[in-house]
What we know:
Blueprint: H1 2-25, H2 28-39, E1 51-55, H3 80-87, E2 97-101, H4 111-121, E3 127-132, H5 137-151, E4 157-163, H6 169-175, H7 180-194, E5 201-208, H8 216-225, E6 229-234, H9 248-251, H10 258-269, H11 278-291, E7 305-309, E8 313-315, E9 324-325, H12 332-336, H13 339-353, H14 363-369, H15 371-380
Helix pairs in contact: 3-4, 4-5, 5-7, 10-11, 14-15
Amino acid sequence: MDxxxxxxxxxxxxxxxxxxxxxxxxxxxxxARGAVxxxxxxxxxxxxxxxxxxxxxxxxxxxxxxxxIWQSPxxxxxxxxxxxxxxxxxxxxxIERLTVVGGEATLRNDLVELTRMFVERLTHLKSLSxxxxxxxxxxxxxxxxxxxxxxxxxxxxxxISVSLEGLGTDHDKVRGVNGAFQKVLTxxxxxxxxxxxxxxxxxxxxxxxHQNLRQAREFRRWxxxxxxxxxxxxxxxxxxxxxxxxxxxxxxxxxxxRDELITFMQEMGTRRSLLDLSAYFWNxxxxxxxxxxxxxxxxPYNMDGLxxxxxxxxxxxxxxxxIGNCLEGRSPSAxxxxxxxxxxxxxxMRGDICKQCNSACAINAGLKKDxxxxxxxxxxx
Length: 381
């Protein structure tokens, strides 16, 4: 009994310590600036982008049930030098958070060189994230080591998310590749070992859909036992990027899934704390899926975010149509600040699309800049 009590006290002390560290290490000046920008300045002028997604290819070695990227027609992908020419535009001077994605980004042989260009050109960069399917362990681990060598000396936080939609053959079926789960395990083991020498975030991304909804709790237990963090994401459908509208009938939640889905979301929403802002998002999802209410979770991509892909296409958000191409004579700044595009973002995106969006993308960045919403949620529930 005394041993159990000491263990509980040590666990509580550890959680308290993490909370206090989080509070002490927070960039309060940055949070205050973000709050002013979101709640005051945005009403007077469009905000320059601080959050960016770079889609470095549309090639993929998976055949996922919920995504059609792997079927994208092959086109010329911008080289490192061509990406650098785009990044030279003043529009990108204030980028603080960068996410590098594909397709499967590691299929680019020059991914490390491309990353080097990003960290050298984006002088205000604070964090760099990437997403992988984990199918190429040796290449992924080598790239991660090289990326850490680029980010660590500059004080840039690094994170990597490995996609995993189930255990064993459940994952293989969703990904459409036999043996995929074992390859992902090798990648995860290698990243866990790498964390012994380097400080970076590593976790898995789990897309919730009809096929794997009822396995989500078992998966969460499996990940918890291994100290692996999970980012759950309800499946979404878009005509751009993943281009998966034709897959909706097969993978979307069905009427018989409703109770299970709402209960799972409610469980996720009970985990509110200063360490985990996602509880706000999950409570929002309950309201959306159960009550048909509009989304209230803030998102940087309709305020100070953008995406650029390997074809030179620019987007305010990858869930919406492109707003122009910076290789066709107009600069990224001219496209981003085009009055018609700004009107589209203000009226169509914020007024309609964003209110129906179920994406958890960059919610921490959005909530930190609109912190009053989250603090009210933590206090009142």
